[in-house]
């Protein structure tokens, strides 16, 4: 198994690097070469690992372990055919070496044949029981296959073998979350904490689990224990701040976010959270100050630009809101949220042509939310009498929301404005059957039609047919 990447270079590594700087050739044991190669692989120094493998095989041409490390590098560099040829040769010499099956599994995994990779890893496990690395690899393969139950079980085995293996612990919790088994995740973490009461990582994850279950007091307690275990654990302060926000304790939330800034370099996310808390408290100058700091710290954070834009929009400062959303669009013109906010601002400014263009960009960039289609239709209605264009927009929306009565009631009204009674009746009938309680939407938006004989007779017929 590979050495810890944080381990200090050992004497063989120092000796090897000294040799590379001279024309001398030093002799190393095969085990020394293995340690040297693992060190370079763990630190991402592939070229040095390859040099060590080459010299190592020159000095120890029959070393199976060095040959397998060579295969590992070949697989890493996607030289899969050559790697398989080497494995074929090695398997003829040592068919019971689990590392051969592990590397074959890695090859199949790279080829997206995860079922075959799992079978090979199971074979490796039969040759080397309770092998930590194999359980970890099995867990990853099951994740690739979206089999979160089996992934969870294998990562649990890793944690049971090494309770300080936080990578596997995170994966276990990820599986619980994906399986929406929050109760199971909470129980698992509480059991883990019985054995490891000062694990800040486990307390932090438990707090997030409680928060997802809206068990806010329990979440706060868990984050407090994480902080007691490690008072420099930024994640615990940040997540505690988020929970305090949900509880309406904005001043306390600000205190926790400020602590994250004191411990480490400030982040745009912390500034944004502080700004939102100040806005909720009515400290508008402070809120604006922190929103500006957010976008200064990270000009690419869309939430920052949207927050400062929304801040001015709420205050009725539409020109300022437009200025900042345009700055955001200039930074990232392919962000649909920016264009959607731009459309909203142009609508408030009664610039319906620009609002129409912004909604078009929003949709072209992949935002297909219901309110996008509805508001786009409204904008075209406000700016023109081009009812057919409005119908075309709403028809696209119906493709995404065929069972939504809101958009169908709206489309029925536009059809009536366009004197298309046949399609209007079809839409109104469909909408009423989907959700008759939403008929008030049609009545409010199209009062000129809601009491017409056509509509009242149609509604009466639908009600009779449904009895």
TrEMBL record:
Keyword Cytoplasm: no
Swiss-Prot/TrEMBL TPR repeat ranges: 98-131, 132-165, 234-267, 268-301, 302-335
Keyword tRNA processing in record: no
Biological process (GO), any one: negative regulation of DNA-templated transcription
Signal sequence extent: none
Organism domain of life: Bacteria
Keywords linked to the UniProt accession: TPR repeat
InterPro entries named among the record's database cross-references: SRFR1-like, TPR-like_helical_dom_sf, TPR_rpt
Protein name: Tetratricopeptide (TPR) repeat protein
Organism expressing this protein natively: Saonia flava
């Amino acid at each position: 198994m590979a050495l810890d990447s944080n381990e200090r270079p050992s004497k063989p590594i120092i000796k090897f690097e000294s040799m590379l700087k001279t024309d001398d050739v030093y002799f190393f044991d095969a085990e020394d070469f293995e340690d040297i190669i693992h060190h370079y692989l763990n630190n991402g120094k592939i070229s040095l690992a390859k040099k060590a493998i080459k010299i190592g095989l020159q000095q120890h041409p029959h070393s199976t372990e060095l040959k397998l490390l060579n295969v590992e590098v070949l697989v890493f560099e996607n030289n899969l055919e050559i790697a398989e040829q080497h494995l074929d040769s090695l398997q003829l010499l040592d068919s019971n070496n689990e590392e051969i099956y592990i590397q074959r599994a890695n090859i199949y995994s790279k080829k997206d044949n995860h079922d075959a990779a799992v079978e090979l890893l199971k074979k490796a496990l039969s040759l080397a029981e309770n092998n930590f690395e194999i359980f970890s690899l099995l867990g990853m393969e099951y994740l690739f296959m979206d089999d979160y139950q089996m992934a969870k079980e294998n990562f649990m085995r890793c944690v049971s073998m090494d309770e300080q293996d936080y990578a596997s612990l995170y994966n276990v919790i990820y599986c619980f979350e994906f399986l929406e088994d929050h109760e199971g995740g909470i129980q698992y973490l509480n059991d883990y904490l019985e054995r490891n009461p000062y694990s800040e990582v486990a307390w932090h994850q438990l707090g997030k689990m409680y928060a997802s279950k809206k068990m806010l007091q329990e979440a706060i307690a868990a984050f407090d224990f994480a902080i007691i275990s490690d008072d420099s654990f930024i994640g615990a302060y940040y997540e505690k701040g988020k929970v305090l926000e949900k509880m309406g304790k904005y001043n306390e939330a600000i205190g926790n976010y400020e602590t994250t800034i004191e411990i480490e370099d400030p982040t745009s996310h912390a500034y944004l959270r502080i700004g939102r808390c100040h806005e909720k408290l009515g400290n508008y100058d402070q809120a604006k100050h922190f929103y500006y700091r957010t976008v200064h710290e990270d000009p690419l954070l869309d939430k920052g630009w949207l927050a400062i834009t929304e801040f001015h929009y709420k205050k009725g400062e539409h020109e300022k809101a437009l200025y900042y959303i345009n700055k955001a669009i200039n930074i990232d013109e392919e962000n649909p949220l920016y264009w959607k906010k731009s459309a909203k601002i142009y609508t408030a400014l009664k610039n319906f042509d620009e609002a129409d263009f912004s909604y078009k960009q929003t949709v072209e960039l992949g935002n297909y939310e219901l309110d996008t289609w509805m508001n786009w239709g409204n904008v075209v209605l406000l700016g023109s009498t081009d009812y057919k264009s409005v119908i075309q927009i709403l028809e696209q929306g119906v493709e995404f929301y065929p069972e939504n009565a809101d958009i169908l009631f709206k489309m029925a009204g536009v059809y009536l404005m366009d004197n298309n009674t046949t399609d209007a009746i079809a839409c109104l009938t469909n909408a009423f059957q989907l959700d008759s309680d939403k008929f008030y939407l049609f009545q409010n938006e199209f009062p000129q039609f809601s009491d017409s004989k056509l509509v009242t007779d149609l509604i009466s017929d639908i009600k009779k047919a449904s009895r």
